[in-house]
Write a structure and sequence with these properties.
Chain A: This is ER lumen protein-retaining receptor. Chain A: Its main location: endoplasmic reticulum. Chain A: Keywords: Endoplasmic reticulum, ER-Golgi transport, Membrane, Protein transport, Receptor, Transmembrane, Transmembrane helix, Transport. Chain A: Pfam families: ER_lumen_recept (PF00810). Chain A: It is a multi-pass membrane protein. The complex is a heterodimer of chains A (212) and B (10). With 212 residues, chain A is mostly helical. Chain A has one domain. Chain A has nine helices and two strands. Chain A has a two-stranded antiparallel sheet with strand order 1-2. Chain B has 10 residues and is largely without helices or strands. Chain B is 0% helix and 0% strand. Chain B is elongated and about 20 Å long. Classes of the chains: A mainly alpha (212), B little secondary structure (10). At the A-B interface, α1, α3 and α5 of A face loops of B.
Chain lengths: 212, 10
């Protein structure tokens, strides 16, 4: 554990609390992509298969259970409690391509051609692009509530903070997880445009608006 | 999974 990884994980936790806070306080899931949220459930379920056989490190286990539980809970909230506020017409990014592409990448790049390693690799490739339906929805609506942009920022910052963590571990421990590193870099690039608008507008106190 | 590397990150 180093400071970058810890900050990354805290950013990930914060993103979920911001999302839940947004849904509760605005009593609406408007602007939140159901498709991205569903992809996150798939990401966590396929990555944390090792919960079934261990080893169960306390920190990791608690976090894994939280990420699975909270992502399923958000889906539940969107599907039932706050269903009418959901932008179903605009939230129509073709996730089949993201899932299919990630699966092909997982078949090509994995540590071993076993079910759990292919699923682990799949989860990383899928996570790297899982925000695309959310960014697509943002593009379609052209603007976003500030709290929604804080959510997306915290979620993107989590993986961006893992990059110095990997650099640190490579230098200090000689440890490199190539799949995680490549997928993490792709994920951060996917967020680049969003980060730019977030830093130039939201941080300056302006509304998140995309040029028409 | 343990043979090659253990995935100890989230």
């Amino acid at each position: 554990m180093n400071i970058f990884r810890l900050l990354g994980d805290l950013s990930h936790l914060a993103s979920i609390f911001i999302l839940l806070h947004k849904i509760r306080t605005t009593k609406s899931c408007a602007g939140i992509s159901f498709r991205s949220q569903a992809l996150y459930v798939l990401v966590y379920l396929t990555r944390y298969l090792d919960l079934l056989w261990g080893p169960w490190l306390l920190y990791n286990t608690v976090m894994k259970l939280f990420f699975i539980g909270s992502s399923v809970y958000v889906l539940y909230l969107m599907k039932f409690d706050y269903k009418p506020s959901h932008d179903m017409g605009l939230d129509n990014f073709k996730v089949e391509y993201l899932i299919g592409g990630s699966f092909v990448m997982a078949l090509l790049f994995n540590l071993a051609f076993t079910f759990d390693e292919v699923m682990w690799s799949f989860s990383l490739w899928l996570e790297s692009v899982a925000i695309l339906p959310q960014l697509f929805l943002l593009q379609r609506t052209g603007e976003a509530e500030t709290i929604t942009t804080h959510y997306i920022f915290a979620l993107g910052a989590y993986r961006a903070l893992y990059i110095p963590n990997w650099l640190y571990r490579w230098v200090m421990e000689g440890r490199v997880e190539f799949i995680a590193v490549f997928a993490g870099i792709i994920q951060t690039i996917v967020y680049a445009d969003f980060f730019y608008v977030y830093f130039t507008k939201v941080i300056q106190g302006q509304k998140f608006e995309l040029p028409a | 999974s343990a043979a090659l590397e253990t995935h100890d990150e989230l």
